[in-house]
Amino acid sequence: MAPNTAAAFLAIGLALLTLDVRVRRGLWPAQILALGAALIALLTVIGYAYSTLALAGVEHFIPMALNTAVAFAFTGAGILCARPDRGLMAVVTSRSAGGVMGPAAPARGRRGSRRPPAGCSGSASARRP
Q1: What domain range includes position 58?
Q2: Tens of pLDDT along 80-111?
Q3: pLDDT tens, position by position, 22-43
Q4: Which of 64, 75, 70 is nearest to 19 (CA)?
Q5: Would you say residue 114 lies in a domain?
């Protein structure tokens, strides 16, 4: 088994065990662990997409399989969405600025996406005093 696969299994398992555990300062360890496992998985998927085996695994070990990486990414996202009213997901799913701008940020990077974000009246150059 690849070391990154073992680390992702460990992080997902600990995230499931600590799903309702809250530590000081309002941190939810399950969300941190699930985000870490999802990042390991997404790094592996990027490694396969660019044919870079250094991103897909650790040298001298077999790399993480692509279907395993996709499964870890979906499992990490599922754990994050299991408690949307807590921690990081509370910010992303809220109606505040973080909740409105967070999900829309990747869409602004594409060409052709010229719509202003929800709640805005348009660009600064279009407004007249």
Answers
A1: 3-95
A2: 888 888 877 777 777 776 666 665 555 555 55
A3: 888 777 889 999 999 999 999 9
A4: 75
A5: no
